[in-house]
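We modelled the chain as a single entity of 385 amino acids. Its sequence is:
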Amino acid sequence: MPSTLSPNMSLILPTVGQEPGPNWALDLNNSLSTVDQHNHAPGSGVQITPAGMDINVDLPFGGNNATGLRSARFNAQGSAFTSGSDIGCIYVYGADLYYRDTASNNVRLTIGGAVAGTPGSIGGLVAPASVNYVPANQTYVFQSNVNTSGAIDCGPLYLRNIVAASNYIQISPPAVLAANYTITLASSLPAAQALMSINNLGNIASVDPDNSTVEINANTLRVKDLGITTAKLADNAVTTIKITDLNVTTTKINDGAVTYIKRSAPNTNSVDLTNVNAVGGNIVLGTVTLTTAAANSSILVTVFPHMSNGYATSNANAYLVFSLTGPGGYSVQYYYGTGINILTSASYIFDCVAAGTYSLEVEYVTVGSVSRIQQNLRVKVIEYR
């Protein structure tokens, strides 16, 4: 057999030592011509497998389609395309599919495991959830299910009137939140609607639930003037131990509301003078001290018979002297009567500007004729404020 045919391209293969020289040369030339124009199509060489290809640059299709693909698998990119050459491309960025249009816009096609909506639409909005606009009252209605409202998770709210070019009120959370918390509104509208005040920085300055009784100012909950009525206060609700001294001021007491206030345990002191026997001259009957608790208080001084077993005689020139000394050089005297009878009580009120310890001296004074007093006495001082 002078020659054979190759299995893939039917090339003439001369048999060595059998085919004559001229025929051998002719067959060889014909075979080389076939090799020169082969394209690996069926019958024109062995078809190329993926293992035989090393595509290291863009592979153009010459304006033709890629057909018969089972799928196209993309490598996820670390960032969105920005190059001017990457236009008209479909690619994967992160976990989602993108299309970069010929105007260099990166259009997101999927989001959160679902198809992304068109601009202005809401991604992931599938039945039974819905968003509808009601023209009758210009309201957007968000529902998570049929006839069931949906929650909205958002940033600051901008509230406007439904008019053209309206200004807005911005409602914002604080700059730093340590934890989530919930504010629940009252179950019904209060009698007055002055709910809160806001300072010039936009922060809530105070909360006034009913504009009448109580308010929250900064971190203090306090009762407004005339805020507590008898209907709101139980008979045994306020006890003495609950009231701090000097904490009830006149602005908190309605005119005519209190007819009598009894002061419990005022600052008081007294000294008993037993068997006083003063005959003529200037006689100091006794001294008593009192430490006041507050400034601008008053001290009531009384001198009266302690027991009814004494007597007093006097002439027209006898009288008592109250001498009070205290903090800051305080010193004042008061002269009580002439021709007095100690069996009748004597009293006087001193105004004291500063709080502190005061000392009262009671002196029996006669001028001219001899006068005599003999009696058991009590000198008492009481602070009032």
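As a brief sanity check on the tokenised model: Residues 21-36 form the longest helix (16 residues). The helical segments are 21-36.
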